[in-house]
Amino acid sequence: KLRETEAHTAHNSRMTMVVALSYSSRWEIIKAMQRTAADALRQKPNELIIQLMGLNIFAAINQVLDIEVVEKICEKNGKKFEDYWQNPQAERYHFIGKDIIRFHCLFWPGMLHAAGFEQPNKIFVHGFLTVNGEKMSKSKGTFVNARTYLDHLPASALRYYYACKLGGTTDDMDLNLTDFVQRVNGDMVGKVTNLASRGAQMLNKNLEGRMGALDEEGRRLVEFARSRAEVIAQHYEDRRFSQVPVEITKIADAANEYFDARAPWKTVKDPNGAETTRTTLTTVLNVFRILAIYLK
């Protein structure tokens, strides 16, 4: 049976909780931690120290709640939690900040093992996030609330910007708002989205929205885009996310150069240029499709 013992001690305005566990069921352990944590949070929010199995674990609550969130998502969608977290063929990656390496690389995997849960396959450690070169601070106006951001801008733009900054090191990332605007407008909108916008609009307006066949030049461009698949996949696998936008930009640049050189806005006006225009648009739209897959 699971035994819970709680000792509440006032010490320097903090509360220490001692939880003694006798292993019988991983779910009983997890639920016990949730109940204990919830009681503590109601009394001393933001000042909780859990002393578990002789180890001071400061982030246990969030980790336990992460498991519960996954469980609830599975239940909501008619899935089984075990098919994801406990599936030996599934890969589990933990993304953490560099200040909590000891807990997430030592204590938390030990807790998972003791509770009968699969441990992470790999742990990705990243640096801190600054805003315009400064530490996040509400008083200085450098604190960005996620809800505030989403009220004004799409999440995909910020995800792309962070991907441009995330590499295989623990270097800090800076959310420079000027750089953010330039990267999103210059790369995502001006290069990638521009291919679909110009290509699809012209195809629908002038060529009944029907694509055609690739010519030799178009085939070479599409094959070039496809040839970067393994390189990009390896960047994702190695968590070198900042290299993915570099590869994508190279492909987008080549496609835009092709588009400008072929000048479909001119050939579409030629009475005999319909099929030439269709070939050009078919090429750039196929390249855009490949880029969209890489970005996903």
Structural descriptors:
disordered N terminus, 296 residues, alpha/beta, 11 helices, three-stranded mixed sheet, elongated
Explain how this protein is built.
- By secondary structure, the chain is α/β, with parallel strands linked by helices.
- The chain is built from eleven helices and nine strands.
- It has helices at residues 26-43, 60-76, 101-115, 146-150, 155-165, 177-206, 216-227, 229-237, 243-262, 264-267, 274-295; strands at residues 9-11, 14-19, 48-52, 55-57, 93-97, 122-126, 129-131, 134-135, 173-175.
- Strands 1-2-3-4 form a four-stranded mixed β-sheet, covered by helices on one side. A three-stranded mixed β-sheet has the order 8-7-9. It has a two-stranded parallel sheet with strand order 5-6.
- Strand 7 (129-131) and strand 8 form a beta hairpin.
- Helix 1 (26-43) crosses helix 2, helix 6 runs parallel beside helix 9 (243-262) and helix 7 packs parallel to helix 11 (274-295).
- The longest helix has 30 residues, at 177-206.
- Poorly predicted sequence stretches spanning 5 or more consecutive residues: 1-25, 44-61
User: What distance lies between the first and last C-alpha atoms, to the nearest angstrom?
Assistant: 46 Å
Describe the strand arrangement of the main beta sheet, using strand numbers.
1-2-3-4
Number of strands: 9
Number of helices: 11
Oligomer: single chain
Name the beta content range: 5-15%
Q: What is the gyration radius calculated from CA atoms?
A: 26 Å
* Proportion in helices: 55-70%
Average pLDDT over all residues: 79
Largest sheet: 4 strands, mixed
Shape: elongated
H-E order: EEHEEHEHEEEHHEHHHHHH
Q: Based on helices, strands and strand pairing, what is the structural class?
A: alpha/beta
